[in-house]
Amino acid sequence: MAAKDLYEKDYYGILGVEKNADGESIKKRYRKLARELHPDKTKGDKTLEERFKAVSEAYDILSDDKKRAEYDQARTLYQQGGIPNGGFQGNFSAGGFGDLGDIFGNLFGGQARGPRRGADMQANATISFRESINGTQLTFNSPSGPVTTKIPAGVNDGARIRVRGKGAKGEAGPGDLYITVNVSGHSIFSRREENILITLPVSFPEAALGADVPVPTLSGEEVTLRLPAGTANGKVLRIKGRGIARKDGSSGDLLVKIEVTVPQRVDGKAKKALESYQAETEGADPRSDFRKRAQS
User: Fold this and answer.
1) Residue 92: how many CB atoms within 10 A of its CB?
2) Which domain CATH number covers 251?
3) pLDDT digits (tens, 9 = 90+) for 162-210
4) CA–CA separation, 74 vs 80, rounded Å?
5) How many domains does the chain have?
């Protein structure tokens, strides 16, 4: 594809974002369109396939700060008539935009003339929460053949992984394959940076009297959490080193939020015991300070 064919394109319009859109807005818009237009969903609709390719091409440029800046420069110059309709004919400078040969060479993967490398390709992959923490291996079909790549441990939702040389073929070599990773949610675990979060149900006696409570971890084993007597509902306790591994060899923590459960029905001796407890603690009003603060 000639450089002229690229700088004539309105990549912002193709993605449906404003020219001043930030990187996060561009990523969210691309992910929405990629899900809607992915070939797995469009069932051979050629028009939608071309739209998918255009959206992927636009995201490849606009998601890279350097490419985006160079595209903006070339696009502005083109709109101002600084590039003749016949296209780019050689090295020249204009209006502070620098050497257009350099711009087009950096932006579009080669020199403005001569053999060009193949186009970069886009792919989406959905992995489980556990796979995102432990890492996994995925296989894709690409123009260069079957591709197997590793997804590193600790990858974040929305991460973009580059696989060099696995895009479309070209005279100057193949382009690259870019994989956008979507991480499915987990019913129990979530993450905050390198920490794993979990909400742990405990009984009222365990919270009031204290207890050693088993806590599940992503590795499949359970660890024991010492619950101090008088632990309040919503209290967050920390189990060190049971989070996500960092590059330096250390690990984040497992953050355990306490949820004191209340039985829906109490009968027999349990009910009498609670009534006795209520009578013994009649003078203790948990809302006295609450009312004072409400009146301040």
Assistant:
1) 12
2) 2.60.260.20
3) 888 888 888 888 888 888 899 998 999 999 989 999 999 999 889 999 9
4) 10
5) 3
